[in-house]
Amino acid sequence: YTPPGAGAPLVKFAGEISLTHFVTTDQVLFKEFVKWDALNVNGIDLDLQPNQLQVQDVKWRGLQTSVIIGPDQRPNLKTVLPEKAAGASATPATTAAPAKADEFPVQLGTLALENASFHFSDESIEPHGAFDVQEFGGTIKGLSSQEQSTATVDLSGKVDSASPFSISGKVNPLAKDLQLDLAVAFTNTDLTAFTTYMERYAGHPLNKGKLTMELHYDINQKQLKAENKFLIDHFTLGPRNDSTNATHLPVKLAVALLKDRKGQINLDIPLSGRTDDPQFAIAPLIFKVILNLIVKAATSPFSLLGALVGGGEELSFVEFEPGRADIPEAEAQKLEKLVKALYERPAVSLEIAGSFDPDQDRAALAGQKLEQQVKVLRLKELADAGQAVPSIESLQLEPPERERLLKKIYTELGTNETLVLQPADMAPATNTSAFASTRTLAAGQDGQAPAASLSGRSARKSPAVSEVKGATALMRVAAKSSATAKETSLASQPAPTSDGAPLTLEQIEAKLRSAIQVSVDEQRDLIKRRAQAVQSYILKTGQVATERLFIVAPKSAGPSGKGERRVNLSLD
Predict the structure, then answer these.
(1) Are 299 and 553 in contact (CB under 8 A)?
(2) What DSSP designation does 460 have?
(3) CA neighbours within 13 Å on the CB side: how many for 320?
(4) SS3 of 362, please?
(5) At what angle do helices 251-258 and 282-299 cross, to 10 degrees?
(6) What's the pTM?
(7) 516, 474 in Cβ contact below 8 A?
(8) Could you tell me which residues come within 8 angstroms of residue 26 by beta carbon, excluding any fewer than 6 positions away?
(9) pLDDT digits over 497-525, tens only?
(10) How far apart are CA 300 and CA 344, in angstroms?
(11) Distance CA 210, CA 75 (A)
């Protein structure tokens, strides 16, 4: 001690301090709070007024501490420290104008930790969550309060005795403006310690999973840049429970969308911001990013899946031409992308639901049936005339001939008749006479009729008639006998409109189409064939297993289906 004014520090201390076998217990939870085997502070050089502190090294061996969250959700650190009473009056020291604090330079050569451990326990949740950091040790060298100086950090340890971690880089925590450049790495950390939180807040137990994490944080002039890379291996959730605190978001679907063929989830979450911004907090931001992924899995799962192959919500459906079940080229390209994405995400299943447009699809099916009627009628004429009959697929009609046949059908039908659908398995006629008398017309799938080959007037079974049996529907013209008698003379005459003017060809076709019935069974058949076409296309790639594809039972066609010439896809 030197009296003031002597030109030397008021107080000077040089020496060392040690404290061994130190134990504290909190008086709230009555559990060990902080303890250690030995703390040695060597090479102390302390001056007060003017102030300075230099320490050669600090060796801390066997440090143990616990962070315990009690049943009241308060951490033990908060419960053992005194709280300022609400409304307490300010002391004179706090009301006086604060004086400018003297600088207190501090330098520490080496801080060495040996065999430290930390225990975490959350007693506010059942079952209790807990994990331990063990064998924690290493050095921090060159700690100083001087600006622009940095200390070298080299620390390592294990989580629950099996998962190594390391912290390395540079930092100056004693300086006025924090500077930091640290890398943190965790390897194969077992995540089952957090299953109690998953059960409560995610609604699923965590059966297994390991975390490998690489973090890099850089703070310079209060500007933070952070890299957060997470590799989660074989993250497996159990069945959903009945937790009232659990989110309703599809957590399991999000996991399946994020998990690759190796069973791994790779997340790269960069962050940036200012440390002096009161709204900036790292952990909530990381949690928000992960929560957004789960929300996206619920609201836009195909966008999340399509990010793998360059697609989005357009991958969630396959559009068809009216009345058809063959996949257009543009839609096939979408399916190729979807297949690649499904291949990369083997835990995702696909539901396939066909649909039917009561306007466009019905009109298209009616048009297909009408075209079949025209061709079959022409084949009948050729057979009756004893001419060779081509297959129905190869039959080409010139416009004038097609117009004649349409007028003939319209005249035979009359204005009050209906083209009636017959069951698909109705036995076809077996000779030309039966063919003529029944006036049966065949319509194949997607308007492709079965092949026909009929010649002469022989009563033997002919390919043209027998192959009609393979068609999806049969259409019979319920014609009046009087109309049949006048068939030849009226077939070439234009049908009159209500005002006496002849109908155009387009009007005749429209009336015939409107008279054709499309049954509910045919609608459901088109729905089914569309769904099967998508399923078959995906399966033929060999990249998606059958058990991952589910055809959803078709819904009844109705007004709500307007505009849905699609197969709608959903992920599960």
Answers:
(1) no
(2) S
(3) 28
(4) helix
(5) 90
(6) 0.68
(7) no
(8) 33, 76, 79, 80
(9) 555 577 888 888 888 888 888 888 888 89
(10) 18
(11) 27
